[in-house]
Write a structure and sequence with these properties.
globular, TAT_signal, Alkaline Phosphatase, subunit A, nine-stranded mixed beta sheet, signal, DUF1501, Twin-arginine translocation pathway signal
Length: 394
């Protein structure tokens, strides 16, 4: 039986939902639920380069208001005497006041790259700026921790394509947008009948093996996603739906320890304030529902929500009421299990810039090392090769 181009494209379309390795080609027969109180990480990626200076605002800094005379945020919600948060993130302010949110300012890496694609690859792979890796930091975590796992679903991405961050050498996460839709697609007779035919061509054979893995995993994820329905009302935004999916899986007995979501685009070269307000409003409401869901089920202390963006923006506004690609940025950490709350370090120094860009003070790989070691209980030196210490906020 010769495979036709149309068949190849259909198989590829379904197979890319997981990009699993052939050694995971097996039925889901064993129960591998997470142990009670085992920590869970949820990563929310701000795609496009969020403007950190209009997110956490230096309310008493004259340089900020001078360089951004048209787009400076003047009605921020106060976090302390010198710092505010964008008013569209009102629930983040509430979390901050409750000791359930920490902010790491001025996070970046040496010799920053201002390309969306390259900088995102650096964040995903936890590489140096002059280093090109084909595996991601979460993928390498899977390689270290899940080599004996029966279910290849220790990490899940709510998206149609798998990000580099979740690709390991031997283990990869599973990507899907909607559990029900993935399951329904995987159960189509067309795909199942195709899988019954063997092909010797190496590329096509790999796709068929991946297809088989997708069929098996789709059933497992779908069953877990509907086992614990939520009474919590989520916003009807795409991000709201994604967080609802994650919450339903966390509350089930699925074996997933890492979830990955993204929202954007934050590439605000033009009319930044309007775009950022809309995105922040969506994020604010989705996170509010998600945290309420976790709290009502008594699991907020065991879940850490972390946000990041591939870079920040330049200090000065441009001529289009926006900002151009910059460097350092802040990261948010939300959980009931934080050891240190609030602002973890100082705001960026706007008097010391590198050709108009912020100079980072905190390396993002140290943040990753902290999460791997203190939250996921993994060997961060093996995953990252990082030996320059960790933080103590978790």
């Amino acid at each position: 039986m010769l495979i036709k181009r149309r068949e190849f494209l259909k198989i590829s379309s379904l197979a890319t939902a997981s990009l699993m390795m052939p050694n995971f080609l097996k039925a889901m027969t064993l129960d591998e639920a997470l142990a009670p109180n085992q920590k869970i990480l949820v990563v929310l990626q701000f795609t496009g380069g969020n403007d950190g200076l209009n997110t956490i605002i230096p309310t008493k800094n004259d340089i900020y208001f001078k360089e951004r005379n048209r787009i400076a945020i003047k009605d921020s919600l106060p976090l302390n005497d010198e710092t505010g948060i964008n008013p569209a993130l009102s629930y983040f302010k509430e979390l901050f006041d409750n000791g359930e949110l920490s902010v790491m300012n001025n996070v970046g890496y040496p010799e920053p790259n201002k390309s969306h694609f390259r900088s995102m690859d650096i964040w995903h792979s936890a590489s140096r700026s002059d280093e090109f890796l084909e595996t991601g930091w979460i993928g390498r975590f899977l390689d270290e921790e899940c080599y004996k796992c029966e279910h290849p679903t220790q990490a899940l991405e709510v998206d149609d394509m798998l990000s580099l961050a979740l690709k390991g050498e031997n283990n990869k996460a599973f990507a899907f947008k909607d559990p029900k839709r993935l399951y329904q697609t995987s159960q189509e007779k067309y795909f199942k009948s195709l899988y019954d035919h063997h092909h010797d061509d190496e590329t096509v054979s790999y796709l068929y093996q991946t297809l088989g893995s997708t069929i098996n995993n789709a059933d497992y994820i779908f069953e877990k996603s509907k086992s614990k329905k939520t009474d919590q009302i989520y916003p009807n935004s795409q991000l709201g739906k994604d967080f609802k999916t994650v919450a339903s899986l966390i509350k089930s007995d699925i074996n997933t320890q890492v979830y990955y979501l993204s929202v954007g685009s934050f590439d605000t070269h033009v009319n930044q304030n309007e775009r950022q307000k809309k995105l922040f409003s969506d994020i604010n409401e989705a996170v509010k529902s998600f945290v309420a869901d976790l709290k009502s089920n008594g699991i907020f202390n065991d879940v850490l929500l972390m946000t990041f963006s591939e870079f920040g923006r330049r200090v000065a506004q441009n001529a289009s009421n926006g900002t151009d690609h910059g460097t350092a940025n802040q990261m948010f950490f939300i959980s009931g299990g934080l050891k240190k709350k609030g602002l973890l370090n100082a705001l960026p120094d706007l008097q010391k810039l590198n050709e108009g860009d912020l100079i980072y003070t905190e390396d993002f790989r140290k943040v990753y090392a902290t999460i791997l070691k203190n939250w996921l209980k993994a060997d961060s030196s093996k995953v990252l090769g990082w030996k320059n210490g960790i933080y103590d906020f978790i």
